[in-house]
Amino acid sequence: xxxxxxxxxxxxxxxxxxxxxxxxxxxxxxxxxxxxxxxxxxxxxxxxxxxxxxxxxxxxxxxxxxxxxxxxxxxxxxxxxxxxxxxxxxxxxxxxxxxxxxxxxxxxxxxxxxxxxxxxxxxxxxxxxxxxxxxxxxxxxxxxxxxxxxxxxxxxx
Length: 157
Fold this sequence. Notes:
Ferritin-like; DPS_DNA-bd; ferric iron binding
């Protein structure tokens, strides 16, 4: 038995929000994979500090991915969860080679900034629908990715 969703946000708005959140989820997942990959494969004089920093970042992303997916579900839509779906939705390039440590840092800074741009775009339909829960979630993501991008860029100065 299906129960109609009546949370004060129209189906049209919920669909628009879920579609944009799906892009944020895909970008976040790809960033998670990139960060975890670099955590495993970083080498060089900054190994220890970058290894630990990348671990903090991918651990935070793992929790965020779950929150984003659960928000999509709360809006009554299916959260993408396959590599095929993520590949179709993401705007973040996958890394298959093993760059040097500072190139890893640069790529992660760029990828965090991409998640920021994707999350900003997702704010529009959430604001239009007065969806405070999604706005709050996206605002938290903006804060985290802004700080992470800044911290990564600081290694390169």
